């Protein structure tokens, strides 16, 4: 039976289209395949390097704690510190703070430790680059801080240290912005994976927190680097989880889910209190430093003195705090212990960060969340014993909820909790708590701890590219100079300058565009400000249409990258 003419024509058309697609695919493979393979190889190398950087950073902290405190198993540091003389517990953080203060004073311009916020800024505004010298010094300072009793986390310094590696590679290969950001994501993913033995969460953390998009083109190299970082971790520590849970972890009744909704709300408020308390403490410390004339190199030592005094009575605040977190997850603490330890850990982490000693906020938020969740669970199960599961399930959910709210990363934090504990059966409770905590916290701060840090520096990334792209363009790059064939008349420009209507050549479009809105002009003069009280020198004119074109091109490029 012969085919109808219409069917035959349809099949021929489909065959031609398929052949054309194959030819085009082969041509793309020949033209771009080797470069893509080469890029994946670079991603693998960066993943291995970042994995080793995270491993050496962790081993360096362990070596310092072993040397300074004399503990054999650093996982039991808090218990061991209870037997040490009080003056050692007091003096070790002070000495560590002094060393950190000198390092930051002499080798960074602002005596400030670099962290995840700076990596996010580098991804958005600096073509995937971060400060390299300051980053290396910050990593060393944070290692000393955590090794000498600072109460913060190791993930922030490790993420920035990995970003230094990718920035160096990007400079070597002269990578453009898209490639630089992808390599930065690879380094971050590998560092997080190597730190927590969490390859899935490491990849998603890089996409969700640092790059802040889920572009398909960046997924494969980031996953390759993340797996490489995990392999580095497992070669040293084996395929083990950071925390071990009791075997009876399970959600007993679906009627218990409303309790986890309430836990999510409470966790979100706790996270907001922790973040705002940290920023308030930083403002207070800045004010006191100005009023007293305290040298900036002495500020970490003062913070170390406060930490040491606190640790004499509560040594569980020393270091990352995984021993206490494990105790919370296994229900080994009483209600009053969980509440007091949570409050003291938040205070200690605030002192460490506000005192500019270094370290990150992820590990403190895990500990704070686990303790808060355990306290909530002990209360909830005591009130409703007949419809409640294990109290430690609340600790697990609280750990994820507080950390997710602090990081502004519900997806990757949920996965990190699963991979840290190896327990995938309690996902319903964790997801419910995480969703509510991040929803609450994101309304009360600028999305996360890191983005709020940047907002406090007048770097507006929380609202998205439409808010921060204007800050990337200098007026001098967009203006029309005086010798331009379509520049504005010099007489009108000079008249506007006399009226005080002009913009500086070094200003950004973020500052220049409001001038057009306020004056209704089509162009404004661009001047070079003279030192002192000298008159400004006319350089050219910034046209409203040119500024809008530059902004639109940047928006289009960002959208193309995020959807590629």
TrEMBL record:
Task: Give the protein name, as stated in the record.
Answer: Chloride channel protein
Q: In its keyword annotation, does this UniProt entry include GTP-binding?
A: no
Q: Which organism is it from?
A: [Roseibacterium] beibuensis
Which InterPro entries would you find in this protein's record? Cl-channel_core, ClC, ClC-type_chloride_channel
CDD domains linked to this entry: Voltage_gated_ClC
Where does this one sit in the cell? Answer: Membrane
Listed SUPFAM superfamilies: Clc chloride channel (SSF81340)
What PANTHER family does the annotation carry? CHLORIDE CHANNEL PROTEIN CLC-E
Chief localisation class: membrane
Q: Name the membrane topology term.
A: Multi-pass membrane protein
Q: Which UniProt keywords apply?
A: Chloride, Chloride channel, Ion channel, Ion transport, Membrane, Transmembrane, Transmembrane helix, Transport
Source taxon at top rank: Bacteria
Source organism lineage?
Bacteria, Pseudomonadati, Pseudomonadota, Alphaproteobacteria, Rhodobacterales
The regions listed as transmembrane in this protein's record are 39-64, 84-107, 183-207, 213-232, 253-277, 297-322, 334-354, 366-384, 396-418, 424-446
Task: List the residue ranges forming a coiled coil, or say none.
Answer: none
């Amino acid at each position: 039976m012969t085919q109808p003419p219409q069917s035959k024509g349809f099949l021929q058309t489909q065959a031609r289209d398929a052949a054309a697609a194959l030819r085009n695919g082969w041509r793309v493979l020949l033209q771009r395949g080797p470069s893509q393979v080469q890029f994946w190889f670079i991603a693998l190398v960066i993943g291995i390097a970042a994995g080793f950087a995270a491993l050496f950073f962790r081993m360096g902290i362990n070596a310092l704690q072993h040397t300074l405190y004399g503990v054999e198993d650093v996982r039991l540091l808090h218990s061991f510190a209870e037997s040490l003389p009080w003056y050692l517990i007091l003096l070790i953080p002070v000495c560590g703070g002094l060393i950190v203060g000198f390092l930051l004073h002499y080798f960074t311009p602002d005596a400030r430790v670099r962290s995840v916020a700076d990596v996010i800024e580098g991804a958005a505004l600096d073509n995937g680059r971060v400060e390299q010298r300051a980053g290396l010094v910050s990593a060393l300072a944070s290692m000393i801080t955590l090794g000498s009793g600072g109460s913060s986390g190791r993930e922030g310094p490790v993420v920035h240290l990995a970003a230094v590696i990718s920035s160096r590679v990007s400079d070597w290969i002269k990578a453009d912005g898209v490639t630089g950001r992808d390599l930065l994501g690879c380094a971050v993913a590998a560092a997080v994976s190597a730190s927590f033995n969490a390859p899935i969460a490491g990849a998603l953390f890089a996409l969700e927190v640092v790059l802040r998009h889920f572009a398909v083109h960046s997924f494969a190299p980031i996953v390759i680097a993340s797996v490489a970082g995990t392999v580095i971790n497992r070669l040293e520590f084996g395929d083990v989880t950071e925390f071990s849970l009791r075997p009876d972890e399970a959600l007993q009744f679906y009627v218990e889910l409303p309790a986890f909704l309430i836990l999510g709300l409470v966790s979100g408020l706790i996270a907001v209190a922790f973040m705002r308390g940290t920023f308030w403490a930083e403002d207070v410390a800045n004010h006191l430093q100005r009023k007293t004339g305290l040298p900036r190199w002495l500020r970490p030592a003062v913070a170390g003195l406060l930490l040491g005094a606190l640790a004499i009575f509560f040594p569980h605040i020393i270091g990352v705090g995984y021993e206490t977190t494990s105790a919370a997850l296994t229900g080994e603490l009483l209600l009053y212990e969980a509440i007091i330890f949570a409050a003291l850990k938040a205070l200690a982490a605030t002192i460490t960060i506000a005192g500019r000693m270094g370290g990150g906020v992820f590990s403190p938020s895990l500990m704070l969340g686990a303790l808060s969740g355990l306290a909530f669970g002990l209360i909830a199960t005591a009130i409703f014993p007949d419809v409640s599961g294990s109290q430690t399930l609340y600790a697990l959910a609280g750990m994820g909820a507080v950390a997710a709210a602090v990081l502004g990363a519900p997806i990757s934090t949920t996965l990190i909790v699963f991979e840290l504990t190896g327990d995938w059966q309690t996902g319903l409770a964790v997801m419910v708590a995480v969703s509510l905590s991040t929803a609450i916290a994101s309304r009360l701060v600028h999305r996360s701890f890191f983005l709020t840090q940047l907002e406090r520096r007048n770097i507006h990334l929380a609202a998205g590219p439409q808010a921060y792209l204007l800050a990337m363009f200098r007026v001098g790059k967009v203006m029309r100079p005086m010798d331009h064939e379509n520049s504005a008349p010099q007489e009108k420009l000079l008249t506007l300058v006399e009226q005080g209507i002009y913009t500086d050549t070094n200003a950004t479009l973020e500052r220049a565009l409001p001038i057009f809105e306020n004056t209704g002009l089509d162009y404004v003069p661009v001047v070079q400000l003279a030192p002192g009280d000298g008159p400004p020198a006319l350089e050219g004119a910034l046209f409203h249409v040119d500024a809008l074109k530059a902004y639109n091109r940047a928006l289009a490029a960002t959208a193309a990258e995020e959807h590629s």
